[in-house]
Amino acid sequence: MNCAHPARPRARGQTLNSETGTQTEAEVPGLTRLFIEFAKMSLMGFGGVLVWARRAIVDKHKWMTAEQFNETFALCHFLPGPNIVNLSVVFGSRFRGVPGAIAAFLGLVLPPVAVVLCLGLLYSRYGEIEALRRTLAGVVCATAGLFFATVIKMLQPIVQQRSVIALAMTAAVFAAVGILRLPLPPVLLVAIPSSILIVWLMRRRAAS
Amino acid sequence: MNPVNQLFTLLWTFGMLSLFAIGGALSAIPEMHRIAVETNHWMSDRQFADMVAIAQLSPGPNVLVVTLIGFHVAGVAGGLVATLGMCGPSATVAYFVSRAMERSRDAQWPQLIQSALVPVSIGLMAASAMILGLSAGTSWVAAVLVAASALVTLLTRLHPLLMLAVGGWLGFAGVI
Fold first, then answer.
1. Quick check: helix, strand or coil at residue A138?
2. Is A170's CB within 8 Å of B123's CB?
3. Has the ipTM of the complex gone over 0.85?
4. Which of A44, A95, A208, B113 gives a 20 to 30 Å CA spacing to A182?
5. Neighbours of B142 (CB within 10 A)
6. Chain-centre distance of CA A185, in angstroms?
7. How high is the pLDDT of residue B109?
């Protein structure tokens, strides 16, 4: 399994080099390297690791072209689970199979988990101190603002396309989970198939 | 509940959630809130919001809020088990799907599913924002601070961490 995958990235390295005109081939990262690189991205990633992952994988090490990275990330985004964790697993496995996936995953997750556990310990000790409570209340407000901003940014393309059905679907999911506080699994088991059906029907109508 | 049972509960709960977290970890916040605050009474609404905020303050993927929840419930082992539960199942799916996609590159269905999932994940993200917004408090000062943070994020290129620091400083200064 280790040998099966590196063939593709190596071929990628060559196409990339023919574009940039350099002689060297993009090297295939080993397990230690995968662990260390993902640990670095992760520890630099305040408020999201994606930017740093793109910078390291595409710009710095040229392990993937921008298109390959976007394609891989799109796949990881539509699959369930934390996107960047999925990306680390898919990326690691393309180069080094299952051990590569595990090395990249552990690099991404272990160092920040250690940091977060320390913060959790501090919080459980001192979380009830008045000054810290006030400070965290302020951070909560700022975080809520960041989340709202993310929603607005995500909504922009649908609003621009005047896609009424997509907006209705967004509103329905929001109402079910955010207002009615229904459990997520049943909501998704209804919302996802209906959304897929609607998109499929619309495309078929557009095609005919 | 005895400690081993607690670890199993965490593993099972977050393992299931892992497969339903469409659009990433932040979209799963409403369900985490339901599980941790409403169903299991592991923590108060304020503690939950604090943990989301602490996870935003720390480096690494956003999913690490589950590490804090697990730690709160069952110590270091709880934090590790919750993290593994939240990442493991979806990572396994991602591994197999990406291998299958290598073989069928020109398939139409991934793109179809992707556009179908976009409105669903926006709806979930909006629910996350609202749940955290409600935890932030119902005072008008809190509401103004939430709105200001959203506007600054949308209109400027200020680093999110700086935004959180300003919020924390205002809170410390007793504005809220």
1. helix
2. yes
3. yes
4. B113
5. 22
6. 21
7. 78
Residue with tokens 């939950």: B48
Mean pLDDT of B46-61: 94
Closest CA to B72 of A124, A175, A188: A124
Phi and psi at B155, nearest 5°, equal: -100, -20
B103 class by beta-carbon count within 10 Å (0-12 exposed, 13-18 middle, 19+ buried) = exposed
Query: Which residues on chain B are in Cβ contact (under 8 Å) with A178?
Result: 30, 123, 126-128, 130-131
- Mention every residue, 6+ apart, whose C-beta is less than 8 A from residue B132: A140, A143, A144, A147, B29, B49, B52
Residue A133 burial by Cβ neighbours in a 10 Å radius (0-12, 13-18, 19+): middle
pLDDT for B1 equals: 64
Q: Where are the alpha helices (DSSP H) in B42-136?
A: 45-57, 65-103, 109-135
Q: How many CB atoms lie within 10 A of CB A130?
A: 8
Of B93, B115, B171, the CB nearest to A136: B171
Which pLDDT belongs to residue A99? Answer: 96
Q: Which whole number is the average pLDDT over B67-75?
A: 97
In this prediction, residue A161 carries a pLDDT of 86
**What are residue A128's phi and psi, to 5 degrees?**
-90, 0
* DSSP single-letter state for residue A25: P
Q: Which ranges of chain A would DSSP assign to H, the alpha helix?
A: 7-20, 31-44, 50-54, 66-78, 83-126, 130-160, 164-174, 184-207
For residue A46, the cross-strand partners are B59
Residue B38 has which token pair?
């409403």
- Give burial (CB, 10 Å; 0-12/13-18/19+) of A125: exposed
Residue with the two structure tokens 């501090």: A122
Token pair 């590490």: residue: B67
Low-confidence ranges of chain A (pLDDT < 50): 1-24
Asked if A146 and B131 come within 8 Å (Cβ–Cβ), the reply is: no
Lowest-confidence pick of A56-60, B48-52, B111-115: B111-115
Q: Give residue A141's pLDDT.
A: 95
pLDDT band at B105 (very low <50, low <70, confident <90, very high): low
Of A74, A113, A137, the CB nearest to B171: A137
